[in-house]
Amino acid sequence: MSNTLTATTLAARPVFEGKLLIDGLWLEAADGNKLERKSPAHDQLVAVYAQAGVADAERAIAAARRAFDQGAWPRMRGADRARVLRKAADLILERKHAIAEMETLESGKPLAQALAEIEGSADLWQYAATLARNLHGDSYNTLGENTLGVVLRDPIGVVSVITPWNFPFLIVSQKLPFALAAGCTAVVKPSEFTSGTTVMLGQILIDAGVPAGAVNILVGLGNVVGDVMVSHPDVDMISFTGSTAVGKAAVAKSAATLKKVSMELGGKNPQIVFADCDWDAAVDAAVYGIYFNAGQCCNSGSRILVQESIAERFAAAVVERSRHVRVGDPLVAGMQVGAITTEKQFRTILNHIDAARAAGATVALGGSQIAGTGMYIEPTVVTGVKPDMAIAREEVFGPVLAMLTFKDMDEAVALANGTLYGLSAAVWSQDFTTCLTAARRIRAGTIWVNTFLEGHAELPFGGYRESGIGRELGRFATEDYTETKTLQMHLGARTDWYVPR
Ligand code: NAD
């Protein structure tokens, strides 16, 4: 079991070997290509995968198409699909330690955090199982005595599921069980940096009884495999989580065959701290909101907007608490922040810090990489940030907090709404009216009031503006993976249109 793994024993751990899941079989890539992954925290090889190419992607899509057009999955009773999804949830929990270990090795996140994410993911599979039995349409008995109208929910078909590297298992679990609950089939592509846990999920789904071809898994590069998945005419819908830039390109590419799209993209999420906040809770949330997952969260609270009268004292408190955040080897118990997941992201974060300095902001804490093996960055607080600086507008996706100030509600809301994003925000005040006024005026998909980064399967998640299109989770999550069909039924004699003259 995982708990005994340390940086020292890691060298003796067998390298994980992953293949492609196509039509119920684990296969090598057609051209024999391989993809390797090193742990970003230890710089050691941890996984080798068959690397899919265009031909593999086409085979996977053909398998999903057949499984949809002719297979059992879309034709099953909701109750039977629910049983399979519940079984998958049970198997996730049974194998949670192995999955969490894989997640930590590929992403660099602390093991205890990875474990909590796997448990949270199992909950999403359980929740989706309840929706499989509850998906239903509508009926109209009000259209006159000759007409009955019935609105059907039909599974939309083949869904391309494309996920990023920051929460690999959690994000695939926000999509796939809901698509399956609706009766869809899928081709899934995890990020090429963190494919291991999605491959493990593939075996769980086979063991849980998902029929061959209903879920296919491709490890591969976005611009090769992902490109086929967003443009192929046999794909009906794309469910994508990733950067706004790649998301926009995927939507543009999919337009040629007019696919339905669900996009969960970036954010530059503000936490608005009013002078009458619960001080300790707000300081703690500022720190948690930016360092959790090393700031590599679409939902990171990467901007603190703090009321002028408390700004200096608040910044000092945030800096002080940030000094004590434990950053380091994610396999060491008690570590709060691990490594940056990819080398590109590591460089991007450091470049953002340099640019903030050059623009005239003050790096009040941190700002550098931590020396030694692995890609670690110091908790970083940037003060004196002005709204037009890149550090106030662009997603850094790292442990870098930008602090801005405001005078009153109007200015706070204008700053909060002043980027192209609209994923989430938080309001900190002990006054009910202040909280609700801000919450109603901020244009974002999730507003936390006196809390931050909480999530529940029951509550919809997604963004306004360039943070995305559509909502995941919540009781309507399966409906997103359906088409709506209208049945109009006529009873009795029909009045002829043609009347002989
Ligand atoms: P990314 O956009 O680089 O990659 C996401 C996925 O898209 C990967 O699987 C990648 O291989 C694939 N991809 C790359 N090029 C493609 C192409 N041309 N066609 C199709 N697919 C392609 O994002 P990332 O760096 O993996 O993740 C970080 C980003 O994800 C951040 O911007 C973050 O805000 C966003 N994110 C958003 C949410 C959300 O729910 N809103 C959640 C997590 C991450």
Question: How is this structure best summarized?
Answer:
With 501 residues, this protein is an alpha/beta fold. The protein has helices at residues 54-69, 78-94, 96-107, 111-134, 168-182, 196-208, 222-231, 244-254, 279-291, 311-323, 343-358, 390-393, 409-416, 432-441, and strands at 16-18, 20-22, 25-27, 34-38, 45-50, 138-140, 147-155, 158-162, 185-189, 215-217, 237-241, 260-264, 270-273, 303-307, 362-365, 380-383, 400-406, 424-428, 446-449, 468-469, 482-490. The chain has two domains: 9-265, Aldehyde Dehydrogenase, Chain A, domain 1 (3-Layer(aba) Sandwich), CATH 3.40.605.10; 270-449, Aldehyde Dehydrogenase, Chain A, domain 2.
Molecules bound to protein: nicotinamide-adenine-dinucleotide
* Count of helical stretches: 14
By helix and strand content, what is the structural category? alpha/beta
Mean pLDDT over the full residue set? 97
Oligomer: single chain
Q: What proportion of the residues form beta strands (DSSP E)?
A: 15-25%
Reading side by side through the largest sheet, how are the strands ordered?
15-16-17-14-13-18-19
Q: End-to-end distance, in Å?
A: 86 Å
Radius of gyration from the alpha-carbon trace, in angstroms: 24 Å
Shape: globular
Domain count, please report it: 2
Instruction: Output the CATH homologous superfamily of the largest domain.
Output: Aldehyde Dehydrogenase, Chain A, domain 1
